[in-house]
Amino acid sequence: MLPGTLPDTLGTLREPTVVVAADYFRSYSVVGLLAVVGVLFVAVAFGAGRLLRPVVPTPEKLLTYECGVDPVGEGWAHTQVRYYVYAFLYVIFAVDSIFLFPWATVFAAPGYGATTLVEMFIFLGFLTVGLLYAYKKGVLAWT
Question: How far apart, in whole angstroms, are the C-alpha atoms of residue 76 and residue 43?
Fold first, then answer.
């Protein structure tokens, strides 16, 4: 019997639990060390930026500025809601299209063809119903 090993119930040799736990936590220590190095890297970068930047506040620099538009008038502006609806619809269909890639992978696996095909048509049916609903509500009309 080797030093540091214990006999198993079947007569084979196995490492003690302490050694196995040490190996297990050693792999997590690498991840923890990388996380600490990453946080330190970001902290040093921000600290260096704060120390090295020039600080000369002027009224023009402290003025609110966005998209090349000078701040004239009130801060409240009327925005068309249809732009948000288009963005929302885009996000919905973009996220849903992500599910097509795993489906294609599973569809290629033997024994899953018919099941995944039916599931995908149900999924595409839901997307079609959502698109038809948006069309019926007049959301897709650009006016």
Answer: 36
Helix (H) or strand (E) holding 6: strand 6-7
| No. of helices (H) and no. of strands (E), the chain | 4, 2
- Tell me which residue has tokens 């040093």: 44
Whole-number Å distance between alpha carbons of 131 and 123 = 13
Alpha carbons within 13 A on the beta-carbon side of 42: 5
User: Residues with Cβ < 8 Å from 132, sequence gap 6 or more?
Assistant: none
For the question of whether the overall pTM of this predicted structure is more than 0.85, the answer is no
Written as six digits, the tokens of 114 are: 């018919």
For the record, the structure tokens of 107 come out as 């569809």
Please report the DSSP string for 12-33 in residue order.
Answer: -EE--HHHHHHHHHHHHHHHHH
pLDDT in tens, 52-101: 998 888 887 777 766 666 666 666 767 677 677 778 778 877 877 787 77
Nearest residue to 139 via CA among 97, 77, 91, 81? 81
